[in-house]
Amino acid sequence: MTAGTDTSTHWPTIPKNVRALAVPPNLVDYDETCATFTWDEARKSLSGLPGDRGRNIAYEAVDRHAAGDRADHEALRFVRGDGSTHSLSYAELAEQTGRFASVLRSLGIGRGDRVFSLTGRIPALYVTVLGTFKNGSVFCPLFSAFGPEPVRQRLQLGGGRALVTTRALYRKKVAPIRDRLPELRHVLLVDADGTPDPDTLDLAALMREAPPYGEIAATQGEDMALLHFTSGTTGTPKGAVHVHDAVVAHYATGRFALDLHPDDVYWCTADPGWVTGTSYGIIAPLVHGVTAIVDEEELDADRWYRVLAEQHVSVWYTAPTALRMLMKAGTDRAAGHDLSALRFVASVGEPLNPEVVVWGQEAFGQPVHDNWWQTETGGIMIANYAATPIRPGSMGRPLPGVEAAIVARDETGAPRMQGGEVVLVTEPDAVGELALRPGWPSMFRGYLGEEERYRRAFAGGWYLTGDLARRDADGYYWFVGRGDDVIKSSGHLIGPFEVESSLMEHEAVAEAGVIGIPDPVAGEVVKAFVELLPGWEPSEALRLDIIGFARKRLGPAVAPRELDFTPSLPKTRSGKILRRLLKARELGLPEGDTSTVEAPR
Ligand code: ATP
Ligand code: MG
């Protein structure tokens, strides 16, 4: 055992109720693919701007197709609340994004200037993202449910020059803070209808009058393209900077991890306010020339199934919170819908409980492919990907071109160093911090305005992810917990995910969130917050039954000592369980940054 690893921990490899899923027959050789893959080769699969003028995401995602035989292919299909749809072909998208770039230019917004959006998932949002790239400006999304303060913070930190929004959102969230944003020169309303509010512009009118746009800005691969704020699960959100070269990673990972092919109808359920909704809701699918579905509404179980069935979705990329919601609603809800077009389901954002992977097989005829990445990594890094067998409960293996490792930590949680090098954990199943070797194209190039924080994310040539994980003997990575969430109890290191997954196996449990609370004897003990499935009522007998159930599975040292029922767990707006908030509330501590907390259901 390497010095500094946590020897006391017991980590079951595959949960007892789950069999490893059968290996499909068409798998390519993982080692061989990894050995032959290089990012430079991947770069060559995308053409770059004509005439060797550089690299621009919008060219690869839109104009390259519009200039070729996919011009009339449906690029984006928007599903409205009533189920009706509205589409943009690649040619239409090229035209509209060109006009938008032209509008920016006419307003004096240039290379490197920041353009923000604050809208729902409407066509104008997608035109804004890609048109901003075309102009060589930098795009930054704001989630439409943010209040005025989070909007102000992000606009200020990002130095936003222009903002695209709707009239209602402007009045409610931007007008009250406008005088505190001197750098914000232009607010463009998508629905001004000829009568913009004072100090705003009518985007549709400007688009109509815009002169035809010339050449796409000759951005270089290393030019800044995107500013993306993290989910704020562990604290104040950080602004991760991404560059145009990232598109190479979106392309490669779209193929490896999501198995995208040009004739796919692909649905990524994430909002572009979060990195998944941009990297995989816009860029990756369009670079592959597929048809991407955008649902403009908030979703419930029936609507998820309806969209999957009615739009003949073939590849679906979603999140554990959505899948758990469907599971909660019962498998028979899936039965009434024709999901025969669906051939690949993937999930990201939070640990995916093994039970959900296996349930997917029943409900969709497909297991769910979990994958791992972060706002900072810009693209998928570790995945149960199309060409490798799934291990339920595992995040999968590093994608080709990605070098991952487990780094040993010292008592303070810092990486253990030896002669300027970090100490890597080499033996299977020992826990440490998940680290990545920098060098992939969608790697973040900084936290805007926080150089020191960025610097601290690296040690000995590795990027430290802040997540704890272990690697099994076959090279699969297993999520243990965020560095900050891990519980130390009587010398054991306990990952909340393991405990939450066990609790979910109880017949009454819909979802669970687990934290450590101080204990004079053990240091910390495990406390669980449990949401029950419909039809179950909280009772003392049920509480004891669930605790007993967890004890049998996990042993008394790891099972929750305390358990509270809760009608709903606090989550980020991107759907992640907020353990730091459960803990702050439990201990009566300040709640910290709550800008990304979802309003309780
Ligand atoms: P913040 O950094 O502001 O605290 P955040 O880390 O939640 O927020 P994101 O970049 O959106 O912001 O999320 C990335 C994190 O989500 C990962 O570091 C990891 O903790 C978690 N995550 C993502 N995918 C998975 C997965 N498949 N399994 C387990 N955890 C995952
Ligand atoms: Mg993070």
From TrEMBL:
The keyword Acetylation applies. PROSITE patterns: AMP_BINDING. Residues 65-448 form the AMP-dependent synthetase/ligase domain. It comes from the Bacteria. GO terms for molecular function: acetate-CoA ligase activity; ATP binding. GO terms for biological process: acetyl-CoA biosynthetic process. InterPro entries: AMP-bd_C, AMP-bd_C_sf, AMP-binding_CS, AMP-dep_synth/lig_dom, ANL_N_sf. This is acetate--CoA ligase. The gene is acsA.
